[in-house]
Structure formats: structure tokens, C-alpha cells
């Protein structure tokens, strides 16, 4: 690791509140606030008008390495993450080969360290080859150098209730959490779009909300039954928010474990903003799994995030090659870019609407995801002695999304040409500036 | 009109104009020994069929040839498509090779709309000849042409569409066009074969065929594929046929003047009894011959009138 410089951040408002302060970052930690003298400072950042938040933590990214380096690599994905304000990301297991063993997870972890722009934590597969039939070697991955703690077959649902029960149970000994892609496969055979008015008109086979909700309900019950931690990936429906609200209120079990301590959930930026009305163009840039839902789902997800029923925002950043998107809808791969637009979408959907203040943004984009993943040095308070993982945001800025200006190799952003509020100005990772004014500092 | 992708794009005047042109072409060709008009001489029409189809493809080919267009048939099997070429590249290739119009049948809903976007600026028009579960606009036009011949103007008429609405592109195109032309549409199907949100389609929905027949001016029987049983959309072909098949007893429930349509291919004994299909009330072969005239009219409006000016 490179030696962190001594940096002075001048005149920044912590969490967007209170008076501006100066932060002295030294030795990778926040060394002083409002220092009287600043000898030996290598770099001064004028943060007038900016706000400081703890560096963002993304529980759900697809970095595509190994296997699809034509769409994203750990290097380009790390760059996109740094530019988006992230200091830690979790790389999903659906690579080629699948991250279902210690060799692959250690490779991803090591490449992340070499790139050094963010902490790259590999997610381990729950089942061998994401096949849903045999448990992967969760313990070996947990005990590997990568120290895997989040396991997920994301892209596929761990649909077999017995396998899910065992995975939950087994992961308890590892201090792990099972992150479920909730999709009952029998209810989504051939599914192409949210089952509703738009899909019916467009002749696209429906992906019904209940296919997600039924699995979430089942797994909340299973998790509490075995006292294991469950994280729900990309909640997309109003009904799932209701199920989570119900599950979180259930009384503690005989061992005194409350559901509240076992359950967590994420929502993606795109499910907070976009609806299935966009499908009328048949442009597969809008194809994603779970699919874009309706306006009332969007409203319910925003409310659930504000209330804490959904804990955090995770991007589900999913790069895809042009040939896998520039085709007919049914042939296209699902997924969209998200790392560099997440903050702005959260600002547009949660801050500008008054549902969250910037303190709340810190909670949903940094603190809660760091807690869920058990990261000791991420999502920490902006206080003396804490790790210098932080992001400086210009809340007044507006910018227009251009795919060609994003760091990802792939260009599948649904926000092309959209003007969005709030901009990441500077990202600081363990005291070192990793992104500044839209440029990666490596 | 530059493309014909959906009947939703047709306002009443445009749709009526197409139907009038089709009727004029039919009258012009009636009784002629040589059915050849010079209208599209020198224009190139390419049919691109990614699904097997006899009637639609032949109908388009005949329509083009009767108007003296050069018609070229490309099928997914015997072309570069079989070598894994993308739809986009195939379309750009055909356009660059001089196609004035591409007629596309594709299993993916929305494929013709994508094609039209990819070909923007090339001057090549696109006709949707059936895309997935989405639309089949020329089928709806030929159905409307047939209904006009049998019933006169469609405004205020009550038209039943019976069967697998969920998976039917014919149903979607017909719902839009019939409503544009002022008809009342009744969809009759078991709940499993109706799409989510059908209550917003501006149609009446019914699960009882017998109750709808006495007030219907026409019924359109949709093909029900027996393989839908495997998706548990209905318990058995027999039960479906008993509840929703148009048999002779049901034919008697229809008013005297009512017409029976079927887009084909028919499953005799399933959604329609053989005696009904062959009765004088059925307009099934009339639909096929009108198909040629309607498709001639579509090609005429797309290619001969300059396009893009409507």
C-alpha cells in the first residue's frame, strides 16, 4: 500500500450540517479537526461549499473479472467506484469461473489490493457453480486470505428451501450472511419485464412481484428459525417492503434473537428512480433483474429506505458489452451501470424529496452497509482517530451523464443524457485521494 | 407512414385510408386475368422471417409481386443469421444492399421497433409481420377489412376476441385497431390467459363465452396451443374446448348476421369445430384473400406515396 499523504481538507461541512471545519488527515486517519497549525501538509483541498460523508460501501457490484474483462475489470470497476465516492465494494460471485472457491476469491481480493483504489471484497457463491444444488465451500472461502463473509448466488435465487436453510445455518459458524437474490424460478419462467400493464401491452412475459415477495417471506422465516443472518438483494416491490416491515417486527425467538438483528435489505438506485414505463422503447438498456417496477413500487421503496425497513442502497452495477445490449429485448442481458451515478440518484430520489438528509445518506450508503458486511474500518464516524475514508460531495452541482465519460469499459447506463443533482468531488481512501474532480488519482 | 410497427400508431383516418386503399385494389384486380400492377416497379421488398409461417409470408410475397416489387425472402435458417449474425447487422446489411422495405417476423417482442431505430436515416421502412406476443398489425387490418365487408362500418359494433389473449399478438393488434375504429371489444378467456392490467385496455372482459355470443356482431377465435397446458394455463384441451370452443350449438347463439373469424392456423376441434370453420358464417378464407390486398395497401402507403409525410 502507498503511504498516505498528509492532507488538509478546508472548510467542509460534516454530513452537510453545522459550521464548516478543517480536517487534517494524517497516517490514514482523521488526525485533527480545525488544527491551529498545519506543518508538513502535502495537499490542501479547498472544500468550500462541499459536504463530507463517510466513504460509500457497495454491497453489490459486478466487476466481471475473471471472465468478462471486455466489459469491466477490477481496475476499471475500482476506478468507477472511486469516482462514485466508494471506498469499499463487494464483487459478486457470478464471474467465469464462478467465485465458489478459495482460488477465485483470493484472486479477486488480491487484484483489488493491487489496484488499491477501494477495498474489493469478493462475495462467495452459496452453491457450486451457482447451480443451487450443492453448497460451495463456504468455510474455505471464509478462512481464505479474502476472508469472505457475504455469500450470494446473485443472478440466481437459492430456490431450494432446504439448501437455503442449510446455507443460513452453516454460515452462522462463519459469522457470515447469506445475500439472497429473491426470485422464485417457477414463477419467472421466460420472464422479461415486470408483470403489469406495460409488459402486457408490449407483449413481454411477466416477472410477477410475488415471485420476489414469496421468497423473501420464506427466507425471513427460515433465517429466524435457524438464527442466521439474511440479506435481501435489490428489493424491488412494495410488497417486499411490506414483508420486511412485518418480519422485522416479529418477536425474538427462544434464544433471544430478534429478527431485527438477523435481517437486512438493500435497494438499487435504479429501482428508486426508474419505472417500467421506460420499456416502451424496447431499448434493453432498461432491462435489469429484478425488472423495473411501477411508480407505486418506487414510492414504497423510497419510503421503506427512509424508514430503515430497507437498510441501504447497493448499486447492482452490472456492465454488459454493446453486443449484449444492442439487440432485441429478449436476447439482451439484464443489468445496468450504477457506481458513478448512485449518489446522484439517491440525491434526486431521497434528498431532493426531503425523505433523507445527508446524515441519512451517510447511513444508507456507508454506515449500514459497512455494519451488514462487518467492516471495522468503513462507515465510521467523521471524527478524530477514525479511518480517513471519506467522500466530499458538492450538493449544489448538477451534471449530465455521458456513458463515454464513465470509467467502466461497458457503456450500459440508463441515465445517458439525464441531468442529475449532486456530484462527488473527492474520494479519500485511507487518507489517500483516489478520485478528485472526476479524475482517478492512481 | 414510414413504418408499420403497431396498430397503436394508426389513427382512425390512417387506418380507414389503408382499408379504403385495400378495397380499391381488390376492386381493381377483381376478375383480371393478369393480376399485376406497375405501382412498385423497381422497389425492393425483403421478407425476414425468424419464425416459420406460411400464410403471412406468402401473403406479403404475393402482395409485393402483384405490385411489381422485387420480393426477396430471407429466412433465419438459410442465411448469415444461422451463423450467429445479430439482427442489427442483418438489417443493416439488407438495407445497404438496397432494400426499400423490410418485413420482419420475429419471436422477440419489439424486434421490429428496434429494427426501425437501427435503420433510421437509411430510408428503409419496416413492417411488423408479427413480433413475439406483441403485435401483428397487418392481421388486424385484414380482420378489419373482412369485418367491413361483412358488417359495414365498425363503429358501435361489438366484437368478441376469444381464447389465448395473453400470448396473442393478433389480439393486441386487434384490440387497438378495433377501438380506434369505434368498435366495442369483448375479450373472452379463462383468467389464466388474460394479461395483467387488461382492465386498463378499454375493453370488456368475460370468462363466459355463452353469455357474450348473443350480443356479438363477430367473434374472433384465437388459436390455443395445446402446449400451454404444460404451463398449467388450463387443465386439458378437452376442458378448454368445452368452455371456450366455438361449436355448432354456440354458433346458433350468435345473431344471424354475426361473423366468425380465425387468424389461422386453426386447431379444428379445439377452439373451433370443423362444421363452424366450414360454415357460411365463417370468413376465414375471405380473411386470407383480404390479407393480400391489405398488405398491398400497406406497401403502397409505405413505398409509393413517398412515406414520412403523414
Structural commentary:
The complex is a heterodimer of chains A (442) and B (310). With 442 residues, chain A is an alpha/beta fold. Chain A folds into two domains: 7-51 and 386-397 and 417-440, Urease, subunit C, domain 1 (Roll); 55-373, Alpha-Beta Barrel (TIM Barrel), CATH 3.20.20. Chain A has helices at residues 74-83, 102-115, 138-143, 161-172, 197-202, 209-226, 238-248, 259-262, 269-273, 295-307, 342-351, 358-373, and strands at residues 7-14, 21-26, 29-33, 43-46, 51-54, 56-61, 86-91, 119-122, 150-151, 177-180, 193-194, 206-207, 230-232, 263-267, 312-313, 390-400, 419-429, 432-436, 439-440. In chain A, the strands form four sheets. In chain A, strands 1, 2, 3, 4, 5, 16, 17, 18 and 19 form a nine-stranded mixed sheet that branches. In chain A, β9, α4 (161-172) and β10 form a beta-alpha-beta unit. In chain A, α4 crosses α6 (209-226), α6 runs parallel beside α7 and α7 (238-248) packs parallel to α10 (295-307). Chain A starts with 6 loop residues before the first strand and ends with a strand. Chain B folds into two domains: 7-134 and 288-309, Aspartate/ornithine carbamoyltransferase (Rossmann fold, 3-Layer(aba) Sandwich), CATH 3.40.50.1370; 137-283, Rossmann fold (3-Layer(aba) Sandwich). Helices cover 37% and strands 15% of the residues of chain B. Chain B has helices at 12-29, 55-66, 87-96, 111-118, 137-151, 169-180, 209-212, 237-244, 248-251, 274-277, 284-304, and strands spanning 44-49, 70-75, 101-106, 125-131, 158-162, 184-188, 204-206, 218-221, 259-261. In chain B, the strands form two sheets. Chain B has a five-stranded parallel sheet, with helices on one face. A four-stranded parallel sheet of chain B has the order 2-1-3-4, with helices on both faces. In chain B, β1 (44-49), α2 and β2 form a beta-alpha-beta unit. In chain B, α5 packs across α6 (169-180) and α5 (137-151) crosses α11. Chain B starts with 11 loop residues before the first helix and ends in a 6-residue tail after the last helix. The interface between A and B is medium-sized, with 25 and 24 residues. Chain A: It catalyses: (S)-dihydroorotate + H2O = N-carbamoyl-L-aspartate + H(+).
